[in-house]
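[job 4471] stage=fold_predict status=RUNNING
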Amino acid sequence: MTTSSPRPAGTSTPTTPTTSSPSGTSPAKHEDPATPSNHHHGTLYARTLGQGPPVVLLHGLVGSSRYWDATYDDLARDHQLVVPDLLGFGQSPKPPAGYTPDDHVDALVAVLDELGATGPAAVAAHSAGSIVALRLALRHPERVRAIVAFGPPLYPDAPAARAHLAAMGPMARLFALPGPIAAAVCGWVCAHRPLAARLAVLTHPHLPAAVAADSVAHTWASYTGTLTNVVLAGEASSWLPDIAAPVTFVAGDRDRVVDRRHLAVLASNTQVRSVNVAGDHHLPLRQQQQCLALLTQAANPS
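[job 4471] inference complete, writing structure tokens
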């Protein structure tokens, strides 16, 4: 499978989004910070909008920044909104290795530093992005105000993580978990990515077209590295006692990825609460106003 190299970083100020210049010269500034900016910052591609205390939105496995659509731009009315493509996904670089939770956090911190978003951020995350958010709060407590995690794939340990995903059915065992069939499919996707993106849109009509198309914007290394080291490692639950920021886990009642019983156990930590709502694994797509209300509350604590 092919990989891409990191692009040169542009420069930016804490308050004014910038766009990268094709020639590699100093990027041009947007006159209006309310205009979205889509470009590479340091190690990652990110969409930025607004000014104020930072709000960071993280997508899940095989997702991209386009998972969080314009509905969530409402958060930028009085905040600096940062929506990156995680390392190895979307338009971000895809190195041949290096997809541990710490690798993802290091890449994210580099983006936030370049944007001047160094103050405590409200972090919203979907699925595997939830584990990146928890690792960020563990390693850099001063940078996280609160976490809202939708559909977090948290399990008691590594065997439980693998067993839970395998129990989702034969398709999950064949295509979601690492194995020869999944590797062959991913290899074909890399070789035929434009066609694979069109097919993803046709075969996933329940997803917005942009989200479906971006579900193939990864490599076998980025997919298996993140799945194995971030999700299947089953370590994130053990970090919670050492995380100071308030954490809200939000699970849909039809979400087969989430271990709701385990989330209830985790909610015994004083700073953690677990919220059950009607819905499936894609709450930020299906229940946008409810999710936005939770994020607004986290970004504007009373």
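[job 4471] summary: The longest strand covers residues 144-150.
[job 4471] exit 0
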